[in-house]
Design a protein that fits this description.
Rossmann fold; about 800 residues; six-stranded parallel β-sheet; 32 helices; Pyridoxal_P_attach_site; 3 domains; globular; about 50% helix; Alpha-1,4 glucan phosphorylase; single chain; binds ligand 26V; nine-stranded mixed β-sheet; alpha/beta; Glyco_trans_35
Length: about 800
């Protein structure tokens, strides 16, 4: 075999390396290789081409003694990696040629990769987009998280209701990671604290080992690569030989099973966080391992521990790693001997906290009892931190520990240099609601960093048709400078551009149509408006309002079947947390409505409902480029930002939305004419909720809503079980906390406005194109630049 350098980016070299890996890394004869074997072989050949820029980046960060960023997140919802790496390295044609030479279908090979679902939704996907941007910008950074053996559950539907199955992405070889047996830390739990020479010493009663697994994250055009380091839990001693020798084989394997439990499974965002010791163990496990790794790296390079904040910036992705505060104080004070106040302030200057939700049920708190039991030294430090905070702020009325619970948001806030919200509206609410007192005590600490999404995955890779049109129109370079999309604006009214823009969308819709046919057996009309709502199922996101509108439309079409209706395909995607009953009922209702509407001959070509199961990153990559309309219909004040909303706008789907989260900024940028606004504002929603009988009144005032609710209540969609949706009916009639009834008519009208405009393809095409041309600001590159400037005080490295 010839010895061309491994970084040879030609197609022939890639083909050669793929063949070589197939044979020598996996021991497969090409004659018998399956799609999976070829996929793994190609992955290693591509990975080889990442290693060099990765080493180069690591060396550059060390050589310049640069300040580094550490992003601590319980979740990284990264999805598939092969196509992303190929796109970032610009190896698309080469990889395709290599596959052709080997006689394998490139697309089938890409589709064979499992979707790494190490996250629940928005928060985890944001972390993944941030990794991409950190590498693209050349910011020296590292992501830290947990290497879950099982990601988010797989969703199937049985007679319309959701069934969860374990997800097992690691049951096949994972091509992208490097196991680092040497990078291991012992992480303790339980035990006692003893005083020794005036210092507190924690003696844990139990321990596990955290072992590092590194995945290189390559940026755009392969110029820089950072590391995602995920921790797996291992036992401190592998095997109890004494027990084995006396024949107790199960007990002998116990330590291994016990330890591995910690990194076994990702928790779905269930409604209660109480009583789940394992979850707290997971949080401490990955946070402590990460902090120790950070300190080891810092002390390799520097000796003065007090200068830590000048070289290290740690970002806490929500409160899940908030135990980083006390852990860092423990290391600085107990282990390095800094006086308590100095240790606390040094830790605070190093840490920053991002808030991602203000929903009361989603704000983390832990019982003091559990904390004393599991982390006795940390609980004592939390008391001391709280006392330190109170001493410095005598006007304070709120403490971190309240009625026997530790509020992690308060802890994270007190121990942060900067606290940020994720959209302009959300940041205002952070300042005026949950954290109002802390904000008054610390003016300037709370800042906004509106979320963003990576255009490499969410436009270049998932929508090649539109991407090619953009490049043909404005040239290359926009992929890492997304505001250049504004250069499309002068072309929007060119007949040629408009036609090509529409053709790109139509091609994506046809492709999605054949996928839906294959996946759920539904035949769709490609001329119908593809109206898409994809996100976790939550009451505040109001999928229920969308289904009610679907029912209403079905009823209206049945009443006037001869009318010229604008055809619609309602597409839903999303999982309900296994313990969230109402969300599961909504899932069931969507499926039940689909099964009635889709067989109604009067609906043919006019209205259909598609709910493909197991929504994940890969499905989003398929649905978003084919969407005509983006449903972002949360109750105002409840969606912190949303990021799907940005992906749709970027791919030329106007938003049907409330003034919530980043919708506000999307509307400001794309223009009010290119956005379907409806619904109450945050203030109006607050007020309405206080108005007695608001739901009853809204229902009485709307014959359409009355009829739609009546239909679900009398079993129109559940003839086998007519009472099935009485619970949902009661929620709507009695409390309607999320104001579905109050917003329904306004939503209906906005939908009919959309129908009207959709009938004029030129007018719709303009709106769609304006959405693409004006969404450049929503690149996560812009977001990360904001974090670098306003929070971390770090510079990008020119390599
Ligand atoms: C968690 C829980 C857990 C208990 C039950 C109710 C509930 C509701 C929501 C959550 C979400 C927790 C954090 C999260 O994922 N927030 C999302 O973060 C995105 C990135 O900033 C943002 O775009 C979404 O608006 C926000 O919901």
């Amino acid at each position: 075999m010839d010895q061309a350098p491994i970084t040879d980016m030609t197609g022939s070299a890639l083909a050669r390396d793929m063949q070589r890996h197939l044979q020598f890394s996996f021991g497969k004869d090409p004659a018998h290789a399956q799609v999976r074997d070829w996929r793994l072989a190609l992955s290693l050949a591509v990975r080889d081409r990442i290693v060099e820029p990765w080493f180069k980046a690591t060396r550059a960060a060390y050589a310049g003694h640069h300040k580094r960023v550490y992003y601590l997140s319980m979740e990284f919802l990264i999805g598939r990696l092969l196509e992303d790496a190929i796109v970032n390295l610009g190896l698309g044609d080469e990889a395709m040629a290599a596959c052709a030479e080997a006689g394998v279908d490139f697309d089938a090979l890409l589709a064979d990769e499992p979707d790494a679902a190490l996250g629940n939704g928005g928060l985890g996907r944001l972390a993944a987009c941030f990794l991409d941007s950190l590498s693209t910008l050349g910011c020296p950074a590292m992501g830290y998280g947990i290497r879950y053996e099982h990601g988010l559950f797989r969703q199937t539907f049985h007679h319309g209701h959701q069934v969860e199955q374990a997800e097992a992405w690691l049951q096949q070889p994972h091509a992208w990671e490097f196991e680092r047996a040497e990078a291991s830390f012992e992480i303790g739990f339980y035990g006692d604290v003893r005083e020794e020479d005036g210092r507190s010493v924690w003696e844990p009663g139990d321990a596990v080992v955290a072992r590092a697994y590194d995945t290189p994250i390559i940026g755009w055009q392969g110029r820089w690569a950072n590391t995602l380091r995920l921790w797996g839990a291992k036992p401190t001693k592998l095997f109890d030989l004494a027990r084995f020798n006396v024949g107790d084989f199960n007990a002998a394997a116990e330590p291994e099973a016990q330890a591995r439990t910690i990194s076994r499974v990702l928790y779905p965002d269930d409604t209660t966080d109480q009583g789940r010791e394992l979850r707290l163990k997971q949080e401490y496990f990955f946070t402590a391992a990460s902090i120790r790794d950070i300190m080891r790296r810092y002390l390799d390079e520097y000796s003065d521990i007090r200068k830590l904040p000048t070289k290290v910036a740690i970002q806490l992705n929500d409160t899940h790693p908030a135990i980083a505060g006390p852990e860092l104080v423990r290391i600085l004070h107990d282990e390095h001997g800094l006086p308590f106040d100095e240790a606390a302030e040094t830790a605070r200057l190093t840490l920053n906290y991002t808030n991602h939700t203000l929903l009361p049920e989603a704000l983390e708190s832990w019982s003091e009892g559990l904390m004393w039991h599991l982390l006795p030294r940390h609980m004592r430090l939390i008391e001391q931190i709280d006392d330190w905070h109170a001493r410095n702020h005598p006007r304070r009325t709120r403490s971190t520990i309240d009625h026997g619970v530790v509020r992690m948001g308060d802890l994270a806030f007190a121990m942060a240099n900067k606290v940020n919200g994720v959209s302009a509206l959300h940041t205002d609410l952070v300042k005026t609601t949950v954290f109002a007192e802390q904000h008054k005590l610390h003016p300037g600490r709370v800042i906004n960093q509106t979320n963003g999404v990576t255009p490499r995955r969410w436009l270049v890779a998932c929508n090649p048709g539109l991407s090619n049109l953009i490049t043909d129109t404005i040239g290359t370079g926009w992929e890492a400078d997304l505001e250049r999309l504004s250069e499309l604006e002068p072309h929007i009214d060119d007949a040629g551009f408009a036609e090509a823009f529409a053709a790109a969308k139509r091609a994506n819709k046809i492709e999605l149509g054949s996928w839906l046919k294959e996946e759920i057996g539904l035949t769709v009309n490609p001329d119908a408006m593809f109206d898409v709502q994809i996100k976790r199922i939550h009451e505040y996101k109001r999928q229920l309002m969308n289904v009610l509108e679907t029912i209403s439309l079905w009823q209206a079409i049945r009443e006037e079947p001869e009318k010229d209706w604008t055809p619609r395909l309602k597409i839903f995607g999303g999982k309900a947390a296994p313990g969230y009953r109402t969300a599961k009922e909504i899932v069931h209702l969507i499926n039940d409505v689909a099964s009635v509407v889709n067989v109604d001959p009067l609906m043919r070509g006019r209205l259909a409902v598609a709910y493909p199961p197991n929504y994940n990153v890969t499905m989003a990559e398929r649905l978003i480029p084919a969407a005509d309309l983006s449903e972002q219909i949360s109750t105002a004040g409840k969606e912190a930002s949303g990021t799907g909303n940005m992906k749709f706008a970027l791919n030329g789907a106007p938003t049907m939305g409330t003034l919530d989260g980043a919708n506000v900024e999307i509307r400001d940028l794309v223009g009010a004419d290119n956005f379907f606004l409806f619904g109450l504002t945050t203030d109006e929603a607050e007020e309405r909720r206080e108005t007695p009988g608001h739901a009853t009144r809204a229902i009485a005032a709307s014959p359409r809503l009355t009829a739609a609710i009546a239909a679900i209540e009398k079993g129109t969609f559940s003839p086998d079980d007519p009472a099935r949706y009485h619970g949902l009916g009661r929620i709507l009639r009695d409390s309607d906390y999320f104001l579905v009834c109050s917003d329904f008519d306004s939503y209906w009208q906005a939908q009919r406005r959309a129908d009207e405009i959709y009938r004029d393809p030129a007018a719709w095409g303009r709106m769609a194109a304006f959405n693409t041309a004006r969404s450049g600001w929503f690149s996560s590159d812009r977001t990360i630049r904001g974090y670098m400037r306003d929070i971390w005080d770090v510079e990008a490295i020119d390599s």
